[in-house]
Amino acid sequence: MHTLKIENLTVTAEEQTILKDFNLEIKSGEIHAIMGPNGTGKSTLTKTIMGAERYKIKKGKIFFDDKDITKLEVDERARLGIFLGMQQPIEIDGVTNADFLRTAIRAQNDDKFELFPFIKDLDKYVEKLKMDKEMIHRGVNKGFSGGERKKNEILQMYMLKPNIVMLDEIDSGLDVDSLKIVGQNVMEYYKENKPAILLITHYQRLLDYIKPDYVHIMKDGHIIKTGDSSLVKEIEKNGYEKLEA
Fold first, then answer.
1. Threshold 0.85, pTM exceeds
2. Which residues of the chain have pLDDT under 50?
3. Which of 125, 127, 230, 245 is 20 to 30 A from 13 in CA distance terms?
């Protein structure tokens, strides 16, 4: 059982306060979805949890299994099993997907690495995600479409086997078929490994595949309302403005 706990977090970027006294607790086996208008701090939350330098914590703390990780570097958080599937995955020229994953797995496992299980898993997950097998030998996201980049994030999730999975608008830019593949594979990973999952999304369509236990609505840098999946239907019908806290 793993727990990610955020206490009274206030975060700024370029002197602008984005998160304000933010609180949230996520445990293994739980799926939390965060929704809200643009500019409310949803992406800032995931990047702050991951340790991105641009975001400055002015107050509050982040705990992983009762360990204060507020000042840990990004790689240290990743080694704890915290994973972020990014909204806009970056391109890394000159480093193949296979090399990137090998290096990450070595770092995660104190330089222990077994080639045959690695190749076996990589082939299996590439096939499950309906990716072109040649992609693993290309630069990370080099020349990939938006949908291919998002599938590549899910491939990384499968290979790194994180305990905390954060997906920041993983559905943006996906066509109907790719959305189904991504959504179903996230749920398969969830059923097999029971991680804690934090989803950032604007749309009901992703939640047709990934069923949240909790839905949180963010506004002005903090959560204003929490409910179950029925809250999504309320938002679809009435929007955020009519939402009563």
1. yes
2. none
3. 245
